[in-house]
Design a protein that fits this description.
With about 290 residues, this protein is α/β, with parallel strands linked by helices. It has a single domain, classed as Aldolase class I (TIM Barrel), CATH 3.20.20. Helices cover about 35% and strands about 20% of the residues. The strands form four sheets. It has an eight-stranded parallel beta barrel, surrounded by six helices. A two-stranded antiparallel ribbon has the order 1-2. Strands 9-10 form a two-stranded antiparallel ribbon. β3, α1 and β4 form a beta-alpha-beta unit. It is globular and about 45 Å long.
């Protein structure tokens, strides 16, 4: 029997497909400290008003940019210092991604959950280092993977020592420069047991559509959010920016910061409906592990 848990705890936030919806939200990549704080504070206040727990997300390095000329972020040392400062100031649990095995241990000293990027989710050495930290792992489904293939990744992490993983749907390649989301994917992922999240932002990408940059369809965040949250998920993943056109990375996919609260209100109502309409479908038998 698998030892992977049906719930994960990220800081003080409990995540499970049968529990109220949480938000993993923030910036695609760390920016100026003033902007980092502005986004963290605004999201924290919006989530408090709506009643949705927040896990703040921001990357210290975007190692998979389309062009070598594209901004990558502050890097490991400065980025971890910025994340630590955000945690001290706002008391938020943190999530960030790692790209190399040697990053896992120092990052785990600062953040509460390690994210494995979709392009790297089959890299055994990276998974081994991340699993060894004891932190929950947010596993992004690779763009060419079927849902069941992410279960193989989760079992690999379990064999390497991980007990808490989250399975993230983030869209599937459909021809060139396009991603689609199959709503049935959420049911398939939920059948695997661990909490399931939906990265709306990156599912709206148009990879390589702008040549040296990735395009996106941020204007469609609300309908795509609704399609996913209606399935009864553990968490919604959103990247926001006060002015998406000025974002350092993935601006065309980002939600405007001032639209986040309204979207979250709709997401919470939809989540309550989804879980009330199927009160026992996702509850772990015999209670949570």
């Amino acid at each position: 029997m698998s030892a992977l848990r049906r719930e994960a705890r990220v800081g003080g936030v409990r995540l499970g497909n049968h529990l109220p919806l949480a938000l993993i939200g923030g910036l695609n990549v760390l920016d100026r400290e003033e902007l980092n704080c502005r986004v963290a504070e605004a999201l924290a206040e919006a989530c408090a008003r709506v009643g949705v727990p927040l896990i703040f997300k921001a990357s210290f390095d975007k190692a998979n940019r389309s062009s070598h000329l594209s901004p990558r972020g502050p890097g490991l040392e400065r980025g971890l210092a910025q994340l630590a400062a955000l945690k001290r100031r706002f008391g938020l649990p943190l999530l960030t991604d790692i790209h190399a095995p040697e990053q896992a241990a120092p990052v785990a000293e600062v953040v509460d959950c390690l994210q494995i990027p979709a392009f790297l989710v089959r890299q055994t050495d990276l998974l081994a280092a991340a699993s060894a930290t004891g932190r929950p792992l947010h596993l992004k489904k690779m763009q060419c993977m079927a849902p069941g293939e992410l279960h193989t990744v989760a079992l690999k992490c379990e064999a390497l020592g991980a007990r808490e993983v989250l399975l993230c749907e983030r869209g599937t390649l459909f021809g060139y420069n396009n991603l689609i989301v199959d709503p049935l994917s959420f049911s398939h992922l939920k059948e695997l047991g661990p909490p399931v999240t939906f990265d709306v932002t990156h599912a709206l990408q148009q990879p390589g559509a702008l040549g040296a940059r990735t395009g996106g369809r941020g204007r469609l965040t609300a309908p795509l959010m609704a399609a996913g949250v209606s399935q009864g998920l553990a968490a919604l993943f959103l990247e926001v920016h006060p002015e998406p056109a000025e974002a350092l990375c993935d601006g065309p996919c980002a939600l405007r910061l001032d639209e986040a609260e309204g979207l979250l209100r709709r997401a919470r109502a939809l989540d309550e409906w989804a879980k009330e309409s199927r009160p026992t479908a996702d509850a772990p038998p015999g209670g949570a592990q």
